[in-house]
Amino acid sequence: MEPSKEPTEAPVKTRPAPRPVPARFLVSKRTLHFDRFMTSAIVFGGLGIVVAVFGIFGFILSQIIPLFGKAHIRKAAEIPMAYQEGGVLGLDEWSELPFFYDGGSEIAFYPMSGTGEAAEPRKESVGLPEGAVVSAYRYDAVSQTLIVGTADGRAGLVKIGYSAAEVDGKRAVSAKVESQPFLPLNEATPAPVRAIDYKDSGDRKLFAVIQGDGAGARVGVVTLRQQRSLLGKGTVKVEGYADLTDQLDGSQPVDILAAGTADSLIVRTEANELFYLFLSGDQWTVRQRFTPFEGTGETVAGLGYLFGDVSLVVYSTGGRVRIYSLFIKEGEKARTFGLTKELHPLRDGITHYFASQRNKSFLVANDHEVALCYATTESVRKTMELPFRAGSLAMDAKAEHAGFIDREAGRLHLFEIDDPHPEAGWRAFFAEIWYEGFAKPKYEWQSTSGTDDFEPKLSLTPLIIGSLKGTLYAMLFAVPIAVLAAIYVSQFMHPDVKRLVKPLMEIMASLPSVVLGFLAALWLAPLIEARVPSVLTIIVLIPVVAALIGYAWSHTPVSFRNRMPMGGEYLILIPAVLAAGWIGWNLGPAVERQLFVATMPGGERIADFRLWWPQFSGLPYDQRNCLVVGFMMGFAVIPVIFTIAEDALSNVPPSIISASEALGASRWQVVRTVVLPIAAAGIFSALMIGLGRAVGETMIVVMATGNTPVMDEMGRLLFGEAGIGNGQFPIADHWNLFNGMRTLSANIAVELPEAAVGSTHYRSLFLGALVLFLMTFVLNTVAEVLRQRLREKFKIV
Amino acid sequence: MSQEVQATAASTRPRRAKGEVQVWLTAVGLSTGLIMIIGLLGLILWNGITVFWPKPVVEFALREADGKTTAVAGEVVKTRLRPADDGSAGKEEIQIFTGNKDAYGLAFRFIDGEAVTGRTEPRDLILAERMEYGDSLFYPIGLDLADGSRVEVADEKFDETFSQLVREAGERRREILHIEKKQIGRLNERIRSEEMAIRRLERSGGGDPAPHQAAIEAAQKEYEALAAEARRLRAEQESNILRYRLASGEERTQKLGDFVHYYRPNDLSWFGRLGVFSYHFFEFITGEPREANTEGGIFPAIFGTFVMTILMAVMVSPLGVIAAIYLREYAAQGLMVRIVRICVNNLAGVPSIVFGVFGLGFFVYGVGSFIDGGTKTPMPAVAWWLSGLAFIVNAVAAIVLAMNYGGSNPNLPKPNAVIRFLKPFTAVCAVLFGIATLVFNPYFDGFYSESLPTPTFGTGGILWASLTLALMTLPVVIVATEEALAAVPRGVREAALACGASKWQMIQRVVLPSALPGVMTGVILAMARGAGEVAPLMITGVVKLAPSLPIDLSAPFIHAERKFMHLGFHIYDLGFQSPDSEGAKPMVFATTLFLILLVVVMNLTAIRIRTQLKKKYQASAF
Fold it and tell me: Which residues on chain A are in Cβ contact (under 8 Å) with B13?
């Protein structure tokens, strides 16, 4: 085109300058409108798409934020309610029909009208025997039972059965009071009941009572038996009475608590000491005695079990709460209480305690302030001043409402508790937590379990370490191979062959990871399970063989060496590596016989790596272990690292290479002193990207570590043995090469479909995804920035 | 040694180049890598292909511990040395596939190499595929036909009768399937929709449900007729019986309706084997899975993968292209765009499971539940109308402003500050009000509220899965399109502008067509990545066995809410969830081979397009 322009230019100069004809430059209105519209549309659309893509981050964040939210307590309703000092308040599941019991012969139910007006309470008899006076009572909210003891030494149970029916589209809650006949506790010496508790574990039912006053107070346990008949359940009869007063060493009992398993008791004495009594066989013995607030100058104000009856919450006159959990201490055989947590929720002495029936949270209060606490994370979720003087308090079964009685005005104040994720928080996700039943604080992930009173363990630390562990072994395996191969391909290989090798590697990069996972699990794991020594031998043998060949080759005559085309080393090495692999494979058993001999308990010596490893290191050995994962994940990572590292190495300007060659450097010297330093940043960014890929790899881990149950004869269920399920292993052996693991990504893939929408578990998994997102995003950004720097430095596209 | 050194002194190469050992060590990296890759592909190729190839069946004579001799027939799977307890190589063991899971309990067994006293390959042994209990290996004895007559194996017409009966059974089976799945399925669909109509009437409180009830009754009648027909066919399937003998001597009978296909593995010519191979292969590609996916074909999985990938490509392409055009052609190339570009690049490295989590949370539980049952937090009616009005006003304003101000023509006067502010403002407002109007609509109760709490769109499905994958592969398309746009020579653009084209015209008619192959490369790469991805699908709608395909002949033809099967998940499921993973291994290998072929072919295509592009532009670049 250009040459044709020039001749026309010359005559133009001679003529008078042409005036532009405006009409020629007019563009049709439609085109202009359309162009303007498309400009706006594309700018808007393009920005919108970019924003939407990053909205993923925002959305995941929005799912996580509630986890770190505070608890809210709001006033919901208020009704008048006659208050009597020491009475108990009970709430139904919906907090619509609270009751109050003041130790009289009737229970008063107050319908929540919602308007705050006085409604006539409905009174129900507790079925007291004639002439009996109630001297002690306790309301067990879990079984919805009022336990009543009388002054003439009798005890009875009053079941309060709430039920809801739909009437005209509205819920109508009704209560049914069902009292069982009162039974004499100790017919020989009837004494007034001072404290009472009752527990039913199914096969054993017992009353735990303190009878009598002052120095004459006696602690007793009454076991009951239900007669079974053909027609169903029969009447309940007293089976036996055990007097435990002697066990207390002369201390005076004040309060008594029975555990839900009906085989242990806690007795509080006047000396602020707790006695833990346990039923073994048919003998009650003191298993432990301890003084909860020893040395603090505070005294025990009361105590109660947490939901699940494994932890004991003891609160003091100084506003302090100490939680004692049952666990097996080092060197002991039986579970005893140990101090695991301490909180200081209130300024003044605590007078009331109420445990949630849904999770490990509890309310503590005195007459002017209240605190909602969560035991697992040792946190005070919310403290609140009460604008009245509170007498009794209660929480409903769903832990959604709390009721307080204004003792002066005689009004019930109903508060709404909004604390959907008490078990979450920074501490829960990243710190060591002393869970119930554990001998020490641990990092632990166990989100679900079969039982209701289960304490969710949501530490992400083991998962992050699992991810890093798999990544570490994959990188250990992949980096040498990928980087060495990249150096060789970019610097020493013939360009024609290079054009073949590169696409091969690129195709490898797109191999679906589910394929690699399947091969890892069904082919590789059984293959190398019994041949770990062979694998180790091969790993050692291959570089040694290559070095030997290289050394020998460089000592052969040049005339012989010249026969090999430039960059043909790999042609010789492929058979050599295969041979080394074969030799190593078959040499393995011999190596095993020499090095890995385990001594069995019987004294016999067996050459088996699988037995030797646990003996040698004290760490477990699993069939689907990190060796398998590392190898297969390495497979996924090698092409990624190779491609990027090779690009970086190839882009080193040839002029620099030629210059150093001209100065007489050997080809290795060129690589070592010139190419590698220049391309170092590029290789580093390749490693970062490889790391990012390995960290997020899901399917290989899910399949190769046996994250899912496999029921064939070869597979073993590793979930739980992976060092996180049952918490038997400290954090150090999360790095064991020969056991499995659970990674963030695999954990999400396995657990998310089962997690209930909006639950803490669900949101915690989102948090895991966010951590994963941030980890890979940071790694990739570092890599990308490095690469761009490198590109600018050498002005390569 | 010194003599050698002298002899080579004249050579141009250095005598003893430094660092040769290191060079060899780098070469070992490549060799190991190549061996691993080729080994892996070879392993899959070999195991995948030999699945379909008929192997000879060997009858072993075994000497039992009590001195008796028994016989067992099977395909040899592998021979291995079982290591003894002390670690030394122990006895030889042969693993054979005996089939006849119904008779033996297991389809595989190990036999002691030392106990084998004889091996024969009997020519009259039959291998038959059955509907249940996997394959069977047997010697036929005779047929008991429905009319009471018997055909013994010695009879000339035994073979003819047997093969004809098996063929007829196959046809009948297809007929039953057609009735039960297609016709009855359609009836069920009709009944369900009528029931939904009744429920809708009940909810709205008006209307007469009688015609709907009548329709249901009619459908019930039709159903009974069809069910009777199916019962009749099933009875026919059971009328002919084959008597046969196992290698162990046990005699058994089986209804002919249970047989799918049979052949004599030891009596096949090479072409015969090829025939069996093609039959198996064809069955595998086109058949439905049977027996917890361990037998039969993978057609639904292929179809599911295909539909999902296409849906994904359809969604990802326009989005990726628009974003790339913006980033490359319209955005001011500065720090901001560079940061965005790096971030987009990095998104490609974000683990797929993260996108899966987003897909589940946003698409399934968010958008899906909204489609099903409408919003849970409606705004007051007045606010909604106002918001709708605001949306319309803003949208109209945005469009008018966009068409009259700005654009790419530098000769036009720049719009003033107010308009420059109003343009994006109205657009953003339009979007926000539009979303609010849509999402908090108090009049919208969802399209499928009558079938709640059973979710329709509020559970995993092919639409959500492909949307999730589209998001995941968006960076791939954006990056590839940007590269392709950047590769369009400046001269071509300037020529187009010089001819009087507007910027959009230039992009539309010149830049985009020449960048099209690059865009295609990106889309194909995205499809390859999407086709092989499993983790995000596991939580957004893939299932081990989908009752129906996502596209079929019943209205509305494309069922975007349906769950689907996927090749990758099929591999995962077969290898890990199936009760008999040893028996499933061949199927897994075959599926793996198919998936890898799919991905590799897509990648190769993309690489080819890319190299051709490079060549083209290397020649024309200036």
Answer: 558, 561-562
